[in-house]
Amino acid sequence: MDPLTQSSVEPIVQGLSALTGLGAKGNHSSMGDLLTSVQLAANGSSSMSSETNGFGSNESVCTNLSTDTVSEHCRFWIQGILLCAVGVIGMIGNTVSIVVLSRPEMLSVFNQILIVMTAFDTIYLLTAIAEFSFVESFHLTSEWYDLLFVYFLYPLHNITLCCSIYSHVVLAFERYLAVCHPEMVYSTQTRTPHQRTHAGNGYASGGRRRRRRRNPAYSVVRKKV
């Protein structure tokens, strides 16, 4: 019997026993029947409490099993499928952005910083998909991956994350200079006659890489970046 139920029923039983002993002969049978009914009610409440406790324990076991199953399904669909889909879309968008921002007509300090930041984000997405989707969700691993993860992938994952964060800081600083100190961002560099002759020889000799390296606008932008 539950201690709370027992403590509440015992005074009633004692009082009814006293009334039964002191009652008249005509009322003796009715008082005895009442006492019997109270005891049966107490026994029934104790059996119901034990059944309730058993049901609660079974419910907790079922809850734990369902929680593990739901967690596994969420990991597969969110961390596996959804992360792969969003990561692939992000890498395609980053690649297109790098190609567009690398054009000569898009040459600026802001665009060069965007290219660097996009490259860091792309590498971070690659390492995140390999670590969280392929290994933790799909359980695809090998000996070579374990070696690369310890010595290359795990450091690269954290390094690119740190570099991406600081690239955003640098981009914000560049925007601050462009708004508050535009003369530092949009100023032009005056070249000497020796530099002009050297640049002209570079153009005459041909080669796109050499022309870009001798391009004064590209040199100025690269120096500012």
UniProtKB/TrEMBL annotation:
Organism's domain of life?
Answer: Eukaryota
One CC-aspect GO term? membrane
Q: Membrane-spanning regions, if any? A: 76-101, 113-135, 147-166
Can you say where in the cell this protein is located?
Answer: Membrane
What ranges does the record give for the region Disordered, renumbered to this chain?
191-218
Compositionally biased residues, Basic residues: 207-218
Q: Which residues form the G-protein coupled receptors family 1 profile domain?
A: 93-182
What the entry lists under SUPFAM superfamilies is as follows:
Family A G protein-coupled receptor-like
The record's annotation in PROSITE patterns points to: G_PROTEIN_RECEP_F1_2 (PS50262)
Q: Which Pfam families match?
A: 7TM_GPCR_Srx
Q: Tell me the keywords, alphabetical order.
A: Membrane, Transmembrane, Transmembrane helix
Subcellular location, principal: membrane
GO molecular function term, any single one? G protein-coupled receptor activity
Q: Which family does it belong to?
A: Belongs to the G-protein coupled receptor 1 family.
- Name the UniProt record assigns to this protein: G-protein coupled receptors family 1 profile domain-containing protein
- Source organism of the structure: Tigriopus californicus
What does UniProt list as this organism's lineage?
Eukaryota, Metazoa, Ecdysozoa, Arthropoda, Crustacea
